[in-house]
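Entry 0007
Protein: Glyoxylase, beta-lactamase superfamily II
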Amino acid sequence: MSELGLHEGEARGCLSFPWETPPQPGQVREVAPGVLWLRMPLPFALDHINLYLLRHGHGWVVVDTGLNTPQSREVWEAVFTDVFGGAPVLAVIATHFHYDHSGLLGWLVDRFQCPAYMSFAEYQSLFVTPPRGDEPNWAFLQFYQRCGLGPEQVAAFRPMLSQMAYDTQAPTSFRRLRENDLLQIGTRRWRVVIGSGHSPEHVCLYSEDDKLLIAGDQILPRITSSVLVSVTEPEANPLGDWLASLRRFRQLSDAALVLPAHERPFHGLHHRIGQLQQHHDAHLDTLTEVLKAGPQTVAELCPALFPRLRGSFDLLMAMGETLAHINFLREEGVLTRTLAGEAWRFSLSSGGEQVLATEDIHV
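Output (structure tokens):
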């Protein structure tokens, strides 16, 4: 599972960054009264995640947790002593279920015997884990064969996924967050804004009075969040959900300081939303142009969107993102598909409403 897409959206023009450099790994910086930015290290090319610590009375509310690794726990131990001064964690909010955001959720909750807050779909997703072992199961194998890969290519994915998997320590209970819920944390009121597409019900927190947006992975300043289809739900349309989310976030103040999960806080919310929209629009235009040459598989279309891949992990992510754009175009009625051997081949539609026909069902 990756938190980020393969292409970078360049932050230009109207984006501004109040801090030229981030805190050092494991260190904090105050970004607003009672709001601390914690730079948690990650063992990836993307070497950090930003966590946010919110002062609340005699203790703290934590937003996201980092990976379930000894390094993350060491950072937290130092925070408990050096930053919190022994004050307790009163609640933990998880923006979404991905490893780096919720890996230590259960550990923190159990340690301080405090509640975990997250959306229902994100809590449920904590318990949907990739199959273990090096041998691909039938659903995994079929998913990528339908994309146009051979059995050997598919088998090469599984050991890599097993090596990259991180266990998430899930809490045994949670308190549900819904769109427009209000949370009073310290002297500040935060409104829950739900995004979708990168994950099912991604929680963001917006303070209208202070123009602060804790955005998680929903709005990032330079890189684009992954929006992809996986074996868990092969017919999903996460890009449709993502684009609808972007329209909702445009309703927030453009003056907001955006506190993202990766890279640096920034101003220029509406400009960045426009960049993200343009990024995906360009991908959609590219696919429809390439398909004028005739029917193609996901594997054949993938290089048109992602021409520079560094290995199996990049290929896996690129296939999922390519399929997300294909499924969006299918739902819009722009594309149709036919099964040729083990792989779907996609074509430009001759027009008319897309419906699920009996020939689309293969058992």
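Curator remark: DSSP finds ten helices and 16 strands in the chain. The longest helix spans residues 269-290.
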